[in-house]
Amino acid sequence: MDLTNRHGWKIMIPRVSVIPEAQKYLEDRGHTVIPYNALKSAELLEELRIYRPNAIVIRDIKADRAFFETAAPELKALARYGAGYDGVDLETADEFGVKCVYAPIGNSFSVAEIAMFHMLHASFRIEQVRKNMMVDFMLAKQRTPYFNLAGKTVGLIGCGNVGSRVAKHAMEFKMNVWAYDPFKPAKDFPKGVRVVRNLDELLAGCDYVSLHAPATSVTRNMINKETLGKMKPTAYLINTARGALVKEADVIEAIHNGVIAGAEFDTSANEPLTADREVLHTEGIYITPHQGGSTKEASSRACMMDCIGIHEIYEGKEPSWPIPRVNYDTAPTYDDVNEEPAYAAPDYLDIWAL
């Protein structure tokens, strides 16, 4: 369809996120792209008043009632950069007639990779090894215990786009993979994963517990003093999903008391982190700055998916990636398990199997 002579939309995209290919995609279809600089809510509200966009891509800033009130009545479409959408007030979006899309697979490759990085980082005890190396090279090399992932068991809490990719990577590392996701039937889990329907069983049986669930009424603060106490004292907690899933103070206390071995986070509560936060200074916790979804490739995919979604809404089509409307308090759950045996990692001394 030739859109060159049609009046398109004004579309705001974060300057740090817009890519030439996505801008060209929109401009070729008659739209005007407005890169914006806002990093805080108050700044974005001011830019909304200035530009009065018909559509917008948002990244870290929440789309709350004040956002939609300021953007009305011009705003028709909102695209969330990435897979997480808990920062979008969907009820208010409906109230103002704004259709919302997101990029569910835009960063799933990258987040899965950083989840594996954090498992490797914990397994090889990189922080302790580096400290010991400054004192004595051989202390670091031979007298600091560190471990392979092969033969260990990782438990995934949530097995959607990211969790499924982590499961496949982990099996390539010769790991056993258990997964807990009550909203997913067993047939939809990756082949080789052991489907676990009891969260306590997963927590107690795994060497790594890796979080890949959205922040919902069901999952907020699900990792707390009680659930941490069910993990192995040698286990590591990995969170590359949402900071709201974890009670940060309880994790700090659990590590101080030897309840778990450590934690590796790519996300935390109340971002951005400030230098005075205790979690940044707790030995046994290693944090990256929510960078899993921000690789060059992930950024490009997410931007392109968002722009496609916005143009689909403009054309009156059903968008390919609408933000799902799920009430997790009432959504159906499943209790079925694998029909086929799960992948079994070889013992580390089983030379022929390795």
Largest sheet: 7 strands, parallel
Count of strand segments: 12
**Proportion in helices:** 25-40%
What class, by secondary structure content? Answer: alpha/beta
Brief summary:
This protein has 354 residues and is an alpha/beta fold. The chain has helices at residues 20-27, 41-51, 65-71, 90-95, 108-123, 126-135, 137-142, 161-172, 199-205, 225-228, 248-256, 296-314, and strands spanning 10-14, 32-36, 55-58, 77-80, 99-102, 153-157, 176-180, 194-195, 208-211, 236-239, 262-265, 285-287. The longest helix is centred in the C-terminal third of the chain and has 19 residues, at 296-314.
Structure description:
The protein has 354 residues and is an alpha/beta fold. 32% of the residues lie in helices and 14% in strands. The protein contains 12 helices and 12 strands. The chain has helices at residues 20-27, 41-51, 65-71, 90-95, 108-123, 126-135, 137-142, 161-172, 199-205, 225-228, 248-256, 296-314; strands at 10-14, 32-36, 55-58, 77-80, 99-102, 153-157, 176-180, 194-195, 208-211, 236-239, 262-265, 285-287. The strands form 2 sheets. It has a 7-stranded parallel β-sheet, sandwiched between helices. Strand 10, helix 11 and strand 11 form a beta-alpha-beta unit. The longest helix has 19 residues, at 296-314. The N and C termini lie far apart (56 Å).
Which key phrases capture this entry?
354 residues; 7-stranded parallel sheet; alpha/beta; disordered N terminus
